[in-house]
Amino acid sequence: MTDDGEALVGRIRPFMKRRKGYSEQKMFGGLCFMINGNMCVGPWKGSLIVRLAMEDHEVTQSMPHVQPMDITGKIMKGWARVEPAGIESDEDLKFWIDAAVKFVQSLPIR
User: Fold this and answer.
1) Per-residue confidence at 28, pLDDT binned at 50, 70, 90?
2) What is the pTM of this model?
3) Is residue 26 one of the residues assigned to a domain?
4) In this structure, are residues 24 and 10 in contact, taking their beta carbons and an 8 Å threshold?
């Protein structure tokens, strides 16, 4: 994991670790934060990836500093990549983490 990734993990962890169902799992060459066994948020190439409702994809993509999540050459609806400028402040980072956790808590426990 890059230094940027480690720094972002260090910023994400305090917002996640007290949540019910929280765990961490290595994937995508980094670390993914889980809720109830479902992928929720994580660092990816300096950005924050967040899992959100697929039906809100277009709205999410229209927000500042948000890009489509594309690891394999295909856009992953229900995911967004928030660029570093969109998570500079802890308040902005918390906004995205809270949104992802709220959605993921609605999913079946795995």
Assistant:
1) low
2) 0.92
3) yes
4) no
Domain containing 21 equals 3-104
Per-residue buried b or exposed e for 55-85, using 16+ beta carbons within 10 Å of the residue's own CB: eebeebeeeebbeebeeeeeebbbbbbbeee
Specify the length of the chain in residues: 110
**Is 51 within 8 Å of 78 (Cβ atoms)?**
yes
Q: What is the mean pLDDT of residues 20-41?
A: 92
Q: Is the pLDDT of residue 17 over 80?
A: yes
What pLDDT, on a 0 to 100 scale, did the predictor assign at position 1? 53
Determine, yes or no, domain membership for 109. no
**CATH number of the domain that 62 lies in?**
3.90.1150.30
Helix 90-104 to helix 3-16 angle, to the nearest 10 degrees?
Answer: 60
Given a cut of 80, whether residue 33 has pLDDT beyond it is yes
Residue 84 in any domain: the answer is: yes
